[in-house]
């Protein structure tokens, strides 16, 4: 079977690489000539563990190809996946212009039965728009070619994308014909053999499933962050409360880690888009509006704590940051809490020294010369007036606290991901602040570092 993946971003590349890994002949298409040239030379545009090796291996085997020529790719394919971006419009609804453009391209170039599958995250009703766009192009050509549309939302997580694709919790597929169902069943067989389920349903339900899943996960995060904030006020410890509630199997223990708000290219935009879908149908999604509001304020919570520590004046203070990406194992900074925190620190007149294992180049696109980029986590601490941990990369988990204490101008640690032990840091002499634990009673006002 020959398949084409249109849009070679996070989803397109992982999808293309994983299908070629199981022996399928895959062509990945993108409008970005530079990206395609780089991919052909083995330069992968994103950091995703395992992806570079998998792409290179399958290119060398001759079953993974990259091109900007959508016409050739569509003509030679049985199945075409659309995996272009669906960024938020001005009002927060999903902008479908790239998806519809690709649908039109399919209609312009298909010359035989083709199954067009939407993998991008799209609002309910989009498959119908895709179908109409293809039909219009076929009508313009005055040809009558049989085709199907299907919806196959993607559930991969960045940083674990390959594993998620190869061993999915489930594959969701919305279809309108038996032919489409059989084709997708065959295509996904290598991934479902070991009991990973493929769930077929109607197209609208499949489109809705993706938004419902992301919104449910975002809801869990905003819920735990809201409870964490209350824990701080009443003197409870969210880490203990989390353990207490997650031992109830009905609640489950995943996606209930408090932090500085969810970021990334999916949760913020998908929650917004679902709220807009509700509005379009005169239905108010009250829970999701609250989820969004909690998340927006949570992104400022660490900045507010630093500001409070310095009595509302950060002018001339230097803040060291560990972690810039929206989560570990990726260089993606889309909607990362770090963006909001850095903007606020700069506006308050602070200097920022930042380190991230892989996202420094990405950060340079956002902040240019406005902040200092360090190649080593300890280098950020030199003469800094506090450290803020924004992403829970493994290498930050057991640092050398004594060296940290020595390097920092003021030994204060603001832990946005609750990765450190309060009593251990206190013993060494740090002022320590995290999320959902009241550490106010431990505050010793800024003091000079003790030397070891
Ligand atoms: P991305 O921005 O990384 O990649 C999109 C690619 O599409 C870009 O390379 C762009 O140049 C290309 N493109 C745009 N218009 C095109 C056209 N007309 N023809 C060919 N290529 C075109 O986006 P992404 O993160 O891969 O997300 C893609 C979709 O998948 C979105 O709808 C997103 O919501 C969804 N999704 C993303 C993730 C994720 O973790 N990133 C997970 C699940 C679902
Ligand atoms: C998410 C979904 O998990 C995935 O199924 C979907 O396909 C795309 O969107 P992703 O955005 O890559 O994946 O990362 P995810 O691991 O879900 O984390 C999203 C954000 O939530 C991150 O900023 C992370 O730090 C935050 N988060 C996650 C928390 O704050 N607490 C948690 O307990 C879990």
UniProtKB/TrEMBL annotation:
Domain UDP-glucose/GDP-mannose dehydrogenase C-terminal: 320-422
Coiled coil: none
Known catalytic reactions: UDP-alpha-D-glucose + 2 NAD(+) + H2O = UDP-alpha-D-glucuronate + 2 NADH + 3 H(+)
EC id: 1.1.1.22
Domain of life per record: Bacteria
Pfam families reported for this sequence: UDPG_MGDP_dh (PF00984), UDPG_MGDP_dh_C (PF03720), UDPG_MGDP_dh_N (PF03721)
Presence of keyword NAD: yes
Entry keyword annotation includes Nucleotide-binding: no
The protein's name: UDP-glucose 6-dehydrogenase
């Amino acid at each position: 079977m020959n398949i084409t993946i249109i849009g070679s971003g996070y989803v397109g590349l992982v999808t293309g690489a994983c299908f070629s890994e199981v022996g399928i002949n895959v062509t990945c298409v993108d409008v970005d000539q530079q990206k395609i040239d780089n991919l052909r030379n083995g330069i992968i545009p994103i950091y995703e563990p395992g992806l570079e090796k998998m792409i290179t291996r399958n290119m060398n085997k001759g079953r993974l190809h990259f091109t900007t020529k959508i016409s050739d790719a569509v003509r030679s394919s049985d199945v075409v996946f659309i995996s272009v971006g669906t960024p938020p419009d001005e009002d927060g609804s999903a902008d479908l212009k790239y998806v519809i453009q690709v649908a039109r391209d399919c209609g312009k170039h298909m010359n035989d039965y083709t199954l067009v599958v939407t993998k991008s995250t799209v609002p309910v009703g989009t498959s119908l728009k895709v179908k109409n766009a293809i039909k219009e192009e076929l009508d313009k050509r005055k040809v009558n070619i049989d085709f199907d549309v299907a919806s196959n939302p993607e559930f991969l997580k960045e940083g674990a994308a390959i594993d998620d694709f190869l061993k999915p919790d489930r594959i969701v597929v919305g279809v309108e014909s038996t032919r489409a169902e059989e084709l997708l069943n065959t295509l996904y067989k290598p991934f479902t053999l070991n009991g990973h389920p493929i769930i077929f349903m109607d197209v609208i339900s499949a489109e809705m499933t993706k938004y419902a899943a992301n919104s449910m996960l975002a809801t869990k995060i905003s819920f735990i962050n809201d409870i964490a904030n209350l824990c701080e006020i009443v003197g409870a410890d969210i880490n203990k409360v989390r353990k207490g509630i997650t031992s109830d199997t009905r609640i489950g223990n995943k996606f209930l880690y408090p932090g500085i708000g969810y970021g990334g290219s999916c949760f913020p935009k998908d929650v917004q888009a679902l709220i807009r879908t509700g509005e379009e149908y005169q239905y108010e999604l009250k829970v999701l509006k609250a989820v969004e509001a909690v998340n927006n304020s949570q992104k400022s919570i660490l900045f507010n704590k630093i500001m409070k520590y310095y009595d509302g004046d950060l002018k001339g203070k230097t803040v060291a940051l560990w972690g810039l990406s929206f989560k570990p194992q990726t260089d993606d900074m889309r909607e990362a809490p770090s963006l909001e925190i850095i903007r606020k620190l700069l506006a308050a007149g602070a200097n920022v020294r930042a380190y991230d294992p892989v996202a420094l180049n990405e950060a340079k696109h956002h902040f240019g010369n406005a902040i200092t980029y360090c190649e080593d986590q300890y280098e950020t601490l030199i003469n800094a007036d506090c450290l803020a941990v924004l992403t829970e990369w493994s290498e930050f988990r057991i640092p050398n606290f004594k060296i940290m204490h020595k390097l920092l101008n003021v030994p204060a640690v603001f832990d946005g991901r609750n990765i450190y032990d309060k009593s251990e840091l206190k013993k060494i002499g740090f002022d320590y602040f995290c999320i959902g634990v009241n550490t106010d009673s431990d505050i010793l006002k800024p003091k000079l570092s003790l030397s070891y």
